[in-house]
Design brief:
The structure is a homodimer of 311-residue chains. By secondary structure, chain A is an alpha/beta fold. Helices cover 30% and strands 15% of the residues of chain A. Chain A has 9 helices and 12 strands. Chain A has helices at 19-28, 52-61, 96-111, 114-119, 143-152, 181-184, 207-212, 230-238, 277-297, and strands at residues 8-12, 32-34, 43-46, 67-69, 87-89, 135-139, 158-163, 174-177, 190-193, 218-221, 244-247, 267-269. The first copy, chain A, has a 7-stranded parallel beta sheet with strand order 8-7-6-9-10-11-12, with helices on one face. A 5-stranded parallel beta sheet of chain A has the order 2-1-3-4-5, with helices on both faces. The radius of gyration of chain A is 21 Å and the shape is elongated. The two termini of chain A are 37 Å apart. In chain A, 50% of the residues are buried.
Chain lengths: 311, 311
C-alpha cells in the first residue's frame, strides 16, 4: 500500500467563528490545512452559506480546488457560485435526524393542542388528536423525509411522499410526483414540508393547496419559509380552514415583531431551530471529516449537490 | 361443537352517558344485556371509575357476577370495592398508545423549548436539546412503558425501566427494581412517570429524587399527580434544579387557578388528556367486546387487575 499524500484543504472565509472547528475536522480526516498565500489547495471548506461572491473570490484564489464543502443543508442562497468544474457537497442529510425530530415535535404539539395548553391559566377540557394510524403527507423525498418516516413508523401512519420524481421512498406507503400534489393533500392529518427550495418549489403551498387540506389538518414547515404563501396561510388560519400551522421557517425570516403569525392561536413559530448551532457544529464537523477521508480514498462524497438542480 | 349460551352482562351505573356504547360493545362480543330486576348476570361492565360504594351495591344486586370490567386504566379510586370472588379487568394497556404518544409529545415539547416558543412574540435565539441517543428513565413497566419504548426506539435512546420487580421489559436497555430508583435518575435526559398509583408509589418523586435528576432533565408525568410531591417540584422548577416538568396529571387535580405551576415558564400542564374521552370511548368499547368474547370462550381476559396489588 503506497502512502497517499495528505489532501491540502483551505478553510474560509478567514476569521469565521467556525474556522477552528472546521480545521480540526479536516485534520481528523487526514487533511492538512492550507492558509491564504500558501500552497495549492485541493479542497475548500466554506463556512458562509449566504455569500456567493466571497466564495467565487476564494475559488479564484484557489484555482485547483476540486471539492467544496458548504455549511448548511439548504444551498439556495449560494447557487450563484456553483460551477461544474468540481464536486460540491453540503450538509444535507447530516442534519436530517434533528430536523425530522423537530418536525415530529411540531406535529404532535399541534395535534395535542399545546398552544392552548401552554398558554392556559386554568384547567381546560380534555381533547386532542392522535397521530396513530393517521394519513400524513411529506413534501420532499430526501434525508429529512427518510428520517421523519423512521420516527413516524411506530405510529403506523400511512405516509404519502411528494417529490420531483415519483421514485419510491423507503417507509412511505406511496410516492407521487409533484404534479400530483393536489391529490396528496386531502385526507392528510399532517402535511410536512421537508423539501429543497428551488424556483419550482417556491410557493408550492398557496391558497389553492391550503384549500385542499382537511379542516383538522396541521401544516408543518421545516424546509424554507418561501415554500409557503404566508398571506394565504394567515388567511387560512384566521378562517380555521386548517387546524393549524407549525413553522420553523418563515417568509419573511426572521418573522418581524407584530406579524399576525405571532398571535394567531393556531400557529406555532420556532426560530429556524430544527437544527441549532450546537448540534449543527458537531454534525458538520463529522461531515467534513468524512468527506476529507472519502476524497483522499477516491470514494463517493456525502451530501453531493446537483449543481444544475440547485440542491 | 356445542352452542355456548350467551353471557348475561349487566351495565351500570344506570343512566351513565357511556351506557349505550357499552351495551353495543357487549352485544358485539356475543353477550346479552341484563337490565336491573332481570335475570342473573354473569358479568358487570361498570362505567364509573370513582364510586366504589355504588359498585359494591351493584355486586350485591348481581351476586353471580364472576367478571367486572372497569372503565379506566388506573383503578386506585375504586380499590375499596375489590374482592377475590371474581375476575376484575380494567382499561390498562388499552389506552397505552395514546398515553405513550402524549408522554413523547410532552418530552419533545420540553426539550425543544416549546413553552418559550409558543409564548414568544418576537424571533428568539435558536437552541434546544435532541432526544437522539439520549439516556431516559421510565418508571413503570406496564403497557404504557412498552408503547413508549416503541415510540422512542427510532431515537436510539438508552432506556432504563424502573418497576416493582426487575423483570426485563422488551426494548429497555436495562430494568431495575424500585429499590434502585436513586441510581436510575442521574444522567437521564427525561424521566417518564408511567406507573400505577399504589400506597408504595405515592410520592415516589420527592425533593430527594428531584435533586438526583440532571439540571438539563425534564420530568414527564402521564401517570397520577400523587406520584409527585408537588411542593418539592415547584421548588425545583423555581430554582431550575431541573430543566422542566410536563404534567398531564397533577395533585391537586384539577390544578386550581392561581397555582404556581400555571405560570412557571418551565412547566407544561395538560388537563389529564393523554387519553381523552373520544379516543377512550372507542378503545374501551373494544376492550369490553374482547373480554365478553374471551370470557365466553374460557380464554384469558385483557387488563386483569391484581386485586391485592391494586392495579
Amino acid at each position: 500500500m503506497r502512502a497517499v499524500p495528505a489532501l491540502r484543504i483551505a478553510v474560509g472565509p478567514p476569521g469565521h467563528r467556525g474556522e477552528r472547528l472546521a480545521e480540526q475536522a479536516v485534520v481528523a480526516g487526514g487533511g492538512t490545512i492550507v492558509r491564504p498565500g500558501g500552497a495549492t489547495a485541493d479542497g475548500l471548506v466554506w463556512l458562509d452559506g449566504a455569500d456567493p461572491a466571497g466564495l467565487r473570490q476564494a475559488l479564484t484564489a484557489w484555482p485547483a480546488v476540486r471539492w467544496v464543502q458548504l455549511p448548511w443543508a439548504g444551498v439556495e442562497a449560494i447557487t450563484g457560485a456553483f460551477d461544474h468544474d468540481r464536486i460540491w457537497t453540503c450538509a444535507k442529510g447530516s442534519f436530517a435526524e434533528p430536523v425530522a425530530e423537530h418536525a415530529l415535535t411540531l406535529a404532535l404539539a399541534g395535534l395535542r393542542r399545546l398552544p392552548e395548553r401552554i398558554t392556559a391559566r386554568t384547567w381546560g377540557k380534555p381533547g386532542g388528536t392522535s397521530l396513530f394510524d393517521a394519513d400524513v403527507t411529506i413534501l420532499g423525498g430526501g434525508g429529512i423525509a427518510v428520517a421523519l418516516l423512521h420516527l413516524l413508523a411506530p405510529f403506523r401512519v400511512r405516509a404519502t411522499v411528494v417529490r420531483r420524481r415519483a421514485d419510491p421512498v423507503p417507509g412511505a406507503a406511496r410516492t407521487v410526483a409533484t404534479a400530483d400534489l393536489d391529490g396528496a393533500l386531502p385526507g392528510a392529518l399532517v402535511v410536512f414540508l421537508a423539501l429543497a427550495l428551488t424556483p419550482e418549489t417556491a410557493g408550492i403551498i398557496g391558497a389553492a393547496e391550503l384549500a385542499r387540506m382537511d379542516e383538522r389538518a396541521w401544516l408543518v414547515n421545516v424546509a424554507r419559509g418561501r415554500h409557503v404563501d404566508t398571506a394565504a396561510l394567515v388567511d387560512a388560519l384566521r378562517r380555521r380552514a386548517i387546524a393549524g400551522a407549525a413553522l420553523d421557517v418563515t417568509e419573511p425570516e426572521p418573522l418581524p415583531d407584530g406579524h399576525p403569525l405571532w398571535t394567531l392561536p393556531n400557529a406555532i413559530v420556532t426560530p429556524h431551530t430544527a437544527d441549532w448551532p450546537e448540534i449543527v457544529t458537531g454534525l458538520l464537523a463529522a461531515r467534513i471529516t468524512a468527506n476529507v477521508r472519502h476524497l483522499a480514498a477516491g470514494q463517493p462524497l456525502e451530501g453531493v449537490v446537483d449543481a444544475s438542480a440547485g440542491y
